[in-house]
Amino acid sequence: MTDQPGKAVVLLSGGLDSATVLAMARSEGFECHALSIRYGQRHAVELQAAVTLALALGAADHRTVAVDLAAIGGSALTDPDIPVPEAATTGIPVTYVPARNSLFLSIALGYAETLGAQDIFIGANAVDYSGYPDCRPAFIAAFETLANLATKAGIEGKRFHIHAPLLDLGKAEIIREGIRLGIDYGLTLSCYQPDAEGRACGRCDSCRLRRQGFIDAGVPDPTRYR
Amino acid sequence: MTDQPGKAVVLLSGGLDSATVLAMARSEGFECHALSIRYGQRHAVELQAAVTLALALGAADHRTVAVDLAAIGGSALTDPDIPVPEAATTGIPVTYVPARNSLFLSIALGYAETLGAQDIFIGANAVDYSGYPDCRPAFIAAFETLANLATKAGIEGKRFHIHAPLLDLGKAEIIREGIRLGIDYGLTLSCYQPDAEGRACGRCDSCRLRRQGFIDAGVPDPTRYR
Predict the structure, then answer these.
(1) Number of independent structural domains in chain A
(2) Are residues B134 and A151, on separate chains, in Cβ contact within 8 Å?
(3) Helix (H) or strand (E) holding B24
């Protein structure tokens, strides 16, 4: 971390986790440049939530970069021929998007370098990393190493830091932290298959983890279900 | 490397280097899935060259993924307000695109995982890595480490290999190897600011390196200059 928090790039999906990370980065004093990725996800309505959240949580600005991952397929989140599962699964779920966090962090890294920022925040978390390989601490550490080799800034002696402050937190802990920081979680959208009005299905993996998180945290669930 | 060459993803820009890499991967017996990235580069006409090259060099297929890097700016190659230099420069050139190879390799990694491929080829080379940080051997090695942590395939014990066979070659050596493999370099386009017909300027960094390469290799330069 830099001595004085400066600019940071914060990956913001519109979901609960990344909204919490944005609030945490702001509370640490960073000037937050929110970055959303439109990657061909079925649930693109979450990007509308990201716009609202960036404003509500005091981001300095917000940009959306489009990447046409549907061109290479391979995930229930981008391929309309693979259904989103509605029952608990074991192992790595079909909603896994190959190399997604590598891609998101690479775009964030390019943006950070452009801005002169050295801090990048991502909402990878403990609940996810039971299933997604690119939500594990070793992955985050490897990306930080890469970032410092990959860039002009790295060669010039600046150090990039990849912050994943949710890594060791369960969903209920994340929610409690966000409530403490004043987040209105009614603005966030976690569902993998929301309707056009942004109402959640209540049945996909992401909805189930989120709903249980509110129960475990002992706070009312503000999610709009359809 | 796998014992039997199987599928490989080959990053193909339409330029001289990546065309040579595709020919090399084919000569090693790989079933090559060519991948081009439309990243907001001014010289998008190079993508037309990539289509021609994929066919001419026997790729099994060819896909183009669009990434709107212009949304985050920062390079002469994507930002129309930064001119492409036409004289030799020292240090890292303004044509450096922040984190470009991290991004390209991340997309290639996602595609490889989708295909069940474990081999990824990229045309990073010695001439470039005097200027571009993400063309150095340490960067390529760090990405290979990342790839094996980032993916479902990596968790399941498959190993990804990032091949950068041009790393230690000068431009003339690359050209000699490509000629040996039968490449028609007249199909390739290296210029950062070609005209709409794909004719090269002859003055940008990339043109000057290429032109000198043909001179040093002692072979006729088939480039169409405007």
Answers:
(1) 1
(2) yes
(3) helix B16-27
